[in-house]
Structure formats: C-alpha cells, structure tokens
Amino acid sequence: MAKIAQLAGVSRATLYGYFKNKDEIVEAVVGRHLMFINRNTKTPVSLTVEGYVTLRLNAQLLIGAQAPIFRDDLTQTMPALARRLEAAYQNFRQFTIEQLQLLKSAKIINDQFSPERLFRQDELFIPAVINDILTHHRPFIETEQLLTDYLTAELTGTVTDPQTILVALDKSKTFRHRIFDELAATYY
C-alpha cells in the first residue's frame, strides 16, 4: 500500500481513506473496466465515419487496459473476478465485431475487411506497443506518434471514403488526448 500511495502521489493515510487494502483497489480497477464495457455495449454505434472512429478508439482503450500482467495476477489472486472481467471483455469484443459488421454493411468500411481481423489487429498491436514501452522505455512522444500513425493509417486504409477520416479524427481529439493521458499515467 505504501508503494501504491507513493505512485499515486498521496499519503498512505489518504489511500486508506479510500481503500482498506489492495484487494479493494483491484476490485475498483476491475469495476472501472466493467463500467466502461457496460457503457460501451448498450448503444449501437452511429453508422458514420465518426462512429467508426469512436468504436475503434474505445476498443483500443479497453485492449490497452487489459495488460497481461494484470490479467494473470487477477486470475491467480481473484479467479472469480477474473472470470467476470474476461466474460465482460468477450462480450465487448463480440459487440464491437457486430458493430464493425454493421459499419461494413453501411459501406463505411470497405468490403474486403473482416470485422474480426480488424479487432484482432488491435488486440495484437496495442499490447505490442505496451510491451515496447516496458521493455525499451520508449519516450512518451515516440509512443504517442506511433499510436497516432497506426490509428490514422488503419482507419484511412479501411474506410470507403478516406477523405472523411481526417475530419473524424479531428472531432475525436479530446477522446484521443484522454487515451494518451491514461497511457502516460499508467506507463510513464
């Protein structure tokens, strides 16, 4: 708890004012993930380029929050909670793939792209970036640019009208900054 308080920039007394022990902190983190999943699987995505961008950003944010070390530790220490989180994640995954299929049917995404493969690409790329941060201690600015380039290329290359992506990305600037703030707070 002392190390957590130090990393959070608060005193141990302040931390204990919110959480009795580490288990409560873990439960709060998982609860945050579950709320995000629940909030983002209730409403169908807008069948627009902006809806597509938001869906992909949500997926990347959640994938980034599913660090393997966290999931492994959770499975070992709190298996019931780990199963609940994994079930919710699989629900989110299925929902996202279904929404990608709707976007494809609406001709927002090109016909040659498989919704399952689009999601899988993010599942492979995002953890690789996190691993790179942890292994090679890349400067934040490099990581931010890498993720921005990936997102821009990925979205531009998959939509039927690539000209619309820049406008949609501009509209998502606030959300993208939130993702980068979360990344910086977690890994830097």
From TrEMBL:
Keywords carried by this UniProt record: DNA-binding
Molecular function as annotated in GO: DNA binding
Classification via InterPro entries: Homeodomain-like_sf, HTH_TetR
Coiled-coil residue spans: none
Cited SUPFAM superfamilies: Homeodomain-like
HTH tetR-type domain: residues covered: 1-37
One family name in Pfam for this protein: TetR_N
UniProt-recorded name of the protein: HTH tetR-type domain-containing protein
Species for this entry: Secundilactobacillus kimchicus JCM 15530
